[in-house]
Specification:
This is Cytosine deaminase. The protein is of the alpha/beta class and about 400 residues long. It is built from 12 helices and 17 strands. It is about 35% helix and about 25% strand.
Length: about 400
């Protein structure tokens, strides 16, 4: 058994902290741990670096990326359906390899300190389970370090593409962890039938749900209403995540408070990418209501967007910008969105800086969370599941 000790680190408040890791678990945290170098003990001198828990990516699409590949020239139309159709056609015509793409981006996430990740994988009647098989291979290849959840996601919709429900059923049987869905009104055009199919599959597999809800205004609120009815009827409290939820950002403060109380009662978590061009769920109101609001990138450098990177401190900065978080203590909230809130939304167990948790640790050169986020401070050391994956700033 090898013991890993981190000495001379600092917490977010600047206080000294040492960490001892055994068997991939944190066994002790204290301002100054007793003991010293010995047989089977590896020590890291943090040199005053800030200690963070492993970063959490709550919403991305590893299978779609062109990260590390030749530049994709985007000439796509501006509507959601344009992007969906363009992507499906390009992937089919180019022979895009989801296994190679997801592995490259997964490794980049690890090098930037992300140790827990939820990725959506396209399931449709053109590609079948090809993309899923590629990402399953990546999950296996990175299993010792990256804790990855896979969402079986019907990007092209369900009701107008016969056979999609069966493919989703098969995906969950083959290893996908979460059932994905999207826009029961705007894409499927029959919200009752769409959500009935979604919840029936989730109930059959006993799995959680993560639905992309891009629908604006009253359309989106109607879809949320139907979801809450089914959550109550099926006892699925705490098993549903709504990604994007642009419609919640359009409500006045009083109405938002009522709706957030309902979401909190149903245990519904929200995930935002903090887009600058769309409304977003109200961050501070969510926190007051007890609604988990986590952060994610969505796509990273793919046919949808040239933007994004596998650096969750950068995404925390985007959250800070979108929600006008300027004080240093307010930026700790942005960090929370890509750490503890992300783990809570996705249901990642044994998380955090505490004895007994999985040893996922990041050491950064910064004086506090605000500097770490705004400067995207270099990751000096990254420990993932007890394994050192970045040593003195170099991925190993």
């Amino acid at each position: 058994m090898t013991t890993l000790e981190i000495r001379n680190a600092r917490g977010l408040d600047g206080s000294p902290v040492d960490v001892r890791v055994e068997n991939a678990r944190i066994v002790a945290l204290a301002p100054s741990l007793p003991g010293g170098p010995g047989n089977g003990v590896r020590q890291i001198d943090a040199g005053g670096a800030i200690l963070l828990p492993g970063l959490v990516e709550s919403h991305t699409h590893l299978d779609k990326t062109v990260w590390g590949m030749p530049w994709y020239v985007n000439a796509c139309g501006s509507q959601l359906i344009d992007r969906i159709d363009n992507e499906r056609q390009w992937r089919a015509g180019s022979g895009h390899d989801a296994a190679a793409a997801s592995l490259a981006l997964g490794r980049a996430f690890l090098a930037a300190g992300t140790t827990r990740l939820r990725t959506h994988v396209d399931i449709d009647t053109d590609a079948g389970l090809r993309h899923l098989e590629g990402v399953l291979a990546t999950r296996e290849a990175l299993a010792d370090t990256l804790d990855m959840q896979i969402v079986a996601f019907p990007q092209s919709g369900v009701l107008d593409r016969a056979g999609t429900v069966a493919l989703l059923d098969d995906s969950l049987a083959r290893g996908a962890d979460v059932l994905g869905w999207l826009d029961p009104c705007a894409i499927d055009r029959d919200p009752k039938a769409s959500l009935d199919a979604m919840f029936a599959l989730a109930d059959k597999h006993g799995c959680p749900v993560d639905i992309h809800l891009h629908e604006p205004g009253e359309m989106g609120m109607f879809s949320l209403e139907l979801m809450l009815e089914r959550i109550a009827a099926l006892g699925m409290q705490g098993k549903v995540v709504v990604s994007h939820a642009f419609c919640l950002g359009e409500l006045d403060a009083a109405r938002a408070e009522v709706w957030l109380a309902r979401l909190a009662d149903a245990g519904v978590a929200l995930i935002t990418t903090a887009p600058p061009s769309r409304t977003v769920p109200p961050l501070m109101a969510c926190r007051r209501a007890g609604v988990t609001l986590a952060g994610g990138n969505d796509g990273i450098r793919d046919t949808w967007t040239p933007y994004g990177s596998p650096d969750m401190l950068e995404r925390a900065m985007m959250i800070g910008l979108r929600y006008n978080l300027r004080r240093d203590d307010a930026l700790e909230i942005a960090l929370d969105c890509v750490t503890y809130q992300g783990a809570s939304a996705c249901g990642f167990d044994d998380y955090g800086l505490r004895a007994g948790a999985r040893a996922d640790l990041v050491l950064v050169d910064a004086v506090n969370a605000a500097q770490a986020i705004v400067t995207r401070a270099p990751r000096r050391w990254v420990v993932a599941n007890g394994n050192i994956v970045v040593s003195e700033g170099v991925a190993v």
